[in-house]
Amino acid sequence: MARIVVTEFMDERAVAQWRAAGHDVLYDPKLVDDTPRLLAEAAACDAIVVRNRTQVRGALLAALGRCRVVGRLGVGLDNIDVPACEARGMQVIPATGANALSVAEYVIGTAMLLLRGAYRSSDAVASGQWPRNALSNGREIGGKTLGLIGFGSIGQLTAKLARGLGMDVMAFDAMLDGDHPAFADAGARSVGLDEAIAGSDVLSLHVPLVDSTRGLLGAARIAQMKRGAVLVNTARGGIVDELALASALKSGHLGGAALDVFDIEPLAASAHFADCPNLVLTPHVAGVTSEANERVSFLIADKVASALSGAAR
């Protein structure tokens, strides 16, 4: 049977499914941080399963001489040199769609928090303060316009949730024609990039990090956003200019932002985010809930097993 190496966390019941089928499995969520051991284990594996921190390129890719399958516990593939893998005969398998609900709920939840602006008052209220007047100018999400940059499975599900809350939704996707049925199915209007940026009360990013999207939301485009608009980025760091975003928050041009991804992860202690008002920072967990981890893990377990079975024929 096959040797499968898992370098980051995965639902252990899905790992057990491989073992029950007779595969030889190394499951070590800390392997990603032990480069010498990672390279040694990679040399003897038939399949490697990673999340976003393991970089399947360079030295690791060179070590995967026997590997035929790369499983990705997530959907972004910027940490995997897909053309190089395929040139070596390796099949790259992402968990497409399995964490879409988790990300979509994160977008809507943080948008509601940022618009309302009242949910950080617990310490003040508990200490006997009563900032009712200061917190009475929050905004409702119903009737606001959600702009989506990227309209794949996550963007489409986010649109459907937003429509259920009474939002107007518009979306830009460079890969979809304006009359693509996905827009109508999700209740969204197809618009150009500039219209999505300038017309949104909430702007949410759902594009991969590639040459054309790096720095997509720089200082000039942030300046085009509505005064008081909020930004949510669950896509990839590097798409948003973090310094420009911090400046727009501090100046009051933007009303809030939620960032789950950063140009360099983990995010180092950073002065530019200090004292930013109405800012939510999370450590790349928008797509990770207990339910999403279960769906992602079992989907990849099944697809990797099928791929290995096909490769063995």
Overview of the structural elements:
It is a single chain. The strands form 2 sheets. This protein has a 7-stranded parallel β-sheet with strand order 8-7-6-9-10-11-12, with helices on both faces. Strands 2-1-3-4-5 form a 5-stranded parallel β-sheet. It has 2 domains: 3-98 and 290-312, NAD(P)-binding Rossmann-like Domain (Rossmann fold, 3-Layer(aba) Sandwich), CATH 3.40.50; 100-281, NAD(P)-binding Rossmann-like Domain (Rossmann fold, 3-Layer(aba) Sandwich). The chain starts with a strand and ends with a helix. The protein has helices spanning 12-20, 35-42, 58-63, 82-87, 100-116, 122-126, 153-164, 181-186, 193-199, 219-224, 242-251, 290-312, and strands spanning 3-6, 24-27, 47-50, 69-72, 91-94, 145-149, 168-172, 189-190, 202-205, 230-233, 256-259, 279-281. The protein is 37% helix and 15% strand. The mean pLDDT is 96. Helix 5 crosses helix 7 (153-164). It has 313 residues and is of the alpha/beta class. Strand 7, helix 8 and strand 8 form a beta-alpha-beta unit.
Short description:
The chain is α/β, with parallel strands linked by helices.
Notable traits:
five-stranded parallel β-sheet; seven-stranded parallel β-sheet; 12 helices; alpha/beta; 2 domains; 313 residues; Rossmann fold
CATH fold group of the largest domain: Rossmann fold
Tell me the number of helical segments per DSSP (H or I, 4 or more residues long): 12
User: Spans with pLDDT under 50 lasting ≥5 residues?
Assistant: none
Overall pLDDT confidence: 96
